[in-house]
Please model this.
Amino acid sequence: MLKINNVEMPTPKKFGIERNKLWSQNSGRLDNGYFVGDLLGIKRKLIIEWPPLKGTDAQTVITAVSQGFTSITFTNEAGAEETGDFYFGDGSGEAYSWNTALLYTTGLNINAIER
Model:
């Protein structure tokens, strides 16, 4: 399940979650190799790729990811529902055909980074 601003998105082909640690400004390695610093938090990065989509489904995704900060609700790798405030990186996709009967978008993907 994937919702952006409470709008159900087409089912992704791939959905990954990175959990990135944020360390304090004074973190790093000492001369003896010992690491120092304070863990400030963990932020999620969602890596989303869709299968080939019809034009209307592709437009739903493109509209949703063209916003600034937005709420995303998703099913995580443990099967639990999570919600967070995210922004989107640059995305990409390809037009499969110019024939309106075969109008599809392939390779549509985007990263969402937690605020």
Summary: The chain has a mean pLDDT of 92. The two ends are 21 Å apart (CA to CA). The CA atoms of residues 43 and 85 lie 10 Å apart.
